[in-house]
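Thread: quick sanity check before group meeting

JM: Hey all, I'm pulling together slides for Thursday and realized we never actually wrote out the predicted structure for the chain we discussed last week. Dropping the sequence here so it's in one place. If anyone has concerns about the input, flag it before I start.
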Amino acid sequence: MIELNHISAGYGKTEILHDITLAFAPGTVTTVLGINGCGKSTLLKTLVRLLPLTSGEILVDGVSAEKYAPAELAKKIAYLPQNRNIPDMTAAQLVLHGRFAHLHYPRVYRKTDTDAAERAMETLGITALADQPLSALSGGMRQKVYLAAALAQESPAILMDEPTTFLDIAGQLRLAQTIRSLADAGKTMILVLHDLPLALKLSDRLAVLREGHLLDCGTPEEILARGSLERAYQIKIHPVRTENGVDYVCGL
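JM (edit): ok, ran it. Output follows.
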């Protein structure tokens, strides 16, 4: 369980998040939504202590996040940022880096680490890319490699900032299935997405931000009923029944 109790945070003297209280439970997918600049990415960075709190407290399994050493917090929470450099290494080497928090001096990878990396690559169907340099891969393939590194970390909570970036439609659908299966297996999944229809179909809960404040939080049905997304985005959202369930059409 991850709990945010009245947190505020930002960059230097500029406060971006204001008095936010939220809880993220195991076995659920929570998607953070809102227009550009509302604080979505800042929220994820604050959760993993890349940004300091200006007030409030973050609890991870009932313990203040400030009390965890960085490696111990990484064992609790894996983080897939939106923007990343392209290091000079192969796909397999990058995925293995996801095990760094589990290593002890002298930092030698064990069979448990290589096994975890291989399982993560198998889960995402990228085993064939193992020996390929990251620089030679497409944006979509690199995205899967970074996601595999997050999975290899084997943390009970995974934070993903715009994980569908660079993925084609089929890749997005497969990723959604992977995220759903991870949550169903007990992981705490916290996402930032711009794709509202995908967020509405995939998520158990939505957290809607506006100007750094928590505008609303609840199930997709509750959020739609209260019109919170329409207020946050200044759009209209229309549910459409299809043979496969309910889809959503967004318009002005």
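AS: nice. The longest strand covers residues 14-24. The mean pLDDT is 90.
JM: adding both to the slides.
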